[in-house]
Amino acid sequence: MASAGQYVCSAGVFFCPLPGTYALEWSAIELSQILEVTIMEQCTNEQMAMRVSLITIVQNIVLSILKLAAGLLAHSGAMVSDAVHSASDVMTTFVVIAGVKLSNKASDKDHPYGHERLECVAAIVLSVILGLTGLGIGSSGIGKIRAGGSALAVPGGLALAAAIVSIAVKEAMYWYTRAAAKKTGSGALMADAWHHRSDALSSVGSFVGILGARMGMPILDPAASVVICVFIIKAAVDIFRDAVSKMTDRSCDDATIQALRDTVLSDKQVLNIDRLNTRIFGDKYYVELEIVADADLSLSQAHDIAERVHDAVERKFTKVKHCMVHVNPTGGHL
Fold it and tell me: Does Metal-binding show up as a keyword for this record (predicted)?
């Protein structure tokens, strides 16, 4: 029996054998829930990101060859363009690999706080690529609508089959990459997941257009492309805003801050919290604390309290890379 990681990898590229007819009943949401629980549990975040990226490269190469062959044989210009699009996606995956690799480099003399923000840079690059992809799809659709019948041809059935395969594979890769991104907290992987979704939506447009053309309604293809364009650009803007906010030392959300407070105050010798500051640095959290302890404690005892609080925070919150604790005495301080 395959391990969880191997099994999910197979599911990610749609080669996972599922018993009986129940395979047809698995929805994308069910697949996502399974992936989030079982996805490569023994891998480090970097190993997981590398594995997902390599699978993405392989499936994009295979899809490019399939779409190109189908487009040429079925005389479908849209499918040939989709093949070129899939081939270009290989380059965006290399951006993810570079971002993850660089962001996981150990701290050094010139970068004592590490390199986590480089992954945000990769996410920004991918969001721009995603936005340009959406604009390209929308521009192409508007151009076809304006051109009318001169740009609307009737493709063969093979192109329709290729579009269906592309939708299925790309949607599976979206959920697979999304699960890995949520598990690792990787903005670059999440951006790549949405790139898969944009490709799936693009193929939906191709499918609708090819089917519409074969049913005497070729205008459906460019109309669908314009609608899809809006969703893709919305996703690109969201990814861009999230990456920028992480690069500008945005604080953690209220729920995380409250959980931090509860953890700190669970120590019986911590009487109060004077200050609790957090900042998100890439996909890591940095915490600065000023706690209140009995003024009659010795320096050594106060230090022990600070160490306990520090260890408790970093133990409970795995995303916390650094926690600094300062102890103030009761009765005020300078």
Answer: no
